[in-house]
Amino acid sequence: MNFLKRILIVLILTFNFSNVFSQNSLNSLNVISSNIAYFFEKPSQFGVSYERVLDQVRSNDISQFSFKLGVYKILDVEKENQYIYRGVNISNDEAKQFNGFLIEPSFKYYFGWGSPFGTYFSILGSYTNYEEVYTDVTDENNNYNSRYSSYGRGLLVGHQFIIGNSISIELGLGYLVEDINLEISRNQNSPINIKTGNDGLKINTSIGFIF
Predict the structure, then answer these.
(1) Class assignment of domain 3-210?
(2) What pLDDT sits at residue 90?
(3) What residue ranges do the domains of the chain occupy?
(4) CB 52 within 8 A of CB 67
(5) CA 153 to CA 169: how far, in whole Å?
(6) CA spacing 20 to 30 A to 13: which of 49, 142, 195, 202?
């Protein structure tokens, strides 16, 4: 997807869900949201998260807990300039194709009254699985298929705002550690397995709807 298409998808989702879930926020125990930062990652991801308050106690002195589960589809293509014809770069618009999914569960602890809104601390996990297919139109010996899978765990601190009676904005920053398994196959050769790890900042920039 290009940049404009991703922006359009966000706007359409915002309009549709706001009509469905426009209710009184004071009685809301559920949030459906989407991390819009994932639209612009490589590979691109799109999907939704569902958050549910686990305890319904409303008190100025008692913080509250919630569980959040995100399910995202990984679906993207990446073009590449693969040869030059009469001085012009010829590209393959689908040189790399990505297809898979991401699952993100998390437990959130809110530091004040009014969950699921306010400042929170979160323990999170992730499971990612996708296939990458690379096609070189000039030399098929460069073609490959790779299977990427990873398990992640981390911590995050954030704040979820409420706008009006139906819209939520969530901003969070944390740290995620991942164990990665990569399997690469070229032509008829036996696959190569690579086990590695990765760690870094985790950013949450979600827009959602409460009900």
Answers:
(1) mainly beta
(2) 62
(3) 3-210
(4) yes
(5) 23
(6) 202
Closest by CA to 68, choosing from 48, 49, 54, 46, is 49
Higher pLDDT, 46 or 15: 46
SS (H, E, C) the chain: CCHHHHHHHHHHHHHHHHHHCCCCHHHCCEEEEEEHHHHHCCCCEEEEEEEEECCCCCCCCCCCEEEEEEEEEEEEEEEEEEEEECCEEEEEEEEEEEEEEEEEEEEEEECCCCCCCEEEEEEEEEEEEEEEEECCCCCHHHCEEEEEEEEEEEEEEEEEEEECCCEEEEEEEEEEEEEEEEEEECCCCCCEEEEEEEEEEEEEEEEEEEC
- With beta carbons less than 8 A apart as the criterion, state whether 34 and 48 touch: yes
Q: What is the pLDDT of residues 164-210, one digit of tens each?
A: 888 999 999 999 999 999 999 987 778 899 999 999 999 999 999 99
pLDDT of 15 reads 42
